[in-house]
Amino acid sequence: MARVILAPSFSSCSFSINTSGKDCRKSSTPNGVRYGIKAMRIEKPLEELYNVRVERKVASERLAELGVSRWSMWKTGKCTLPWDWQVDQLVYIEEGEVRVVPEGSKRYMRFVAGDLIRYPKWFEADLYFNGPYQERYSFRAYGDD
């Protein structure tokens, strides 16, 4: 069942109409208080906007099911890399963390050891590593999960 929420008026004054319906006049709010609704900006998570799928604290059974131990390994230290994905890529972070800033965005996604991330084909971002980092990765064909 839907509920109606009433909010104060947007203006700093209210209107009243007399009972005859012929006279309309403005009246100020009590104590000069202004009422209004502050606009809220609801932002979708970047993962949703860019179709990046994340599983946090992945169980060892899930890793075994995917065969993560047989995937290629990549390591780096503190650095920044511009990156674009030519194919879907599944990444399991074994050590460290990465901040992923999508091209044209001021916001970032943060992934840490134990996260399993699926980056979509044609995604472009800058990657920020603030220390030792190690991941296992696998390129995926369309429809592979």
TrEMBL record:
Q: Which residues form the (S)-ureidoglycine aminohydrolase cupin domain?
A: 64-132
Please report a single Pfam family linked to this protein: Cupin_3
Q: Which PANTHER family match?
A: OS04G0445200 PROTEIN, PLASTID TRANSCRIPTIONALLY ACTIVE 18
Spell out the protein name for this chain.
Answer: (S)-ureidoglycine aminohydrolase cupin domain-containing protein
* Matches recorded under CDD domains: cupin_TM1112-like
Q: What is the lineage of its organism?
A: Eukaryota, Viridiplantae, Streptophyta, Embryophyta, Tracheophyta
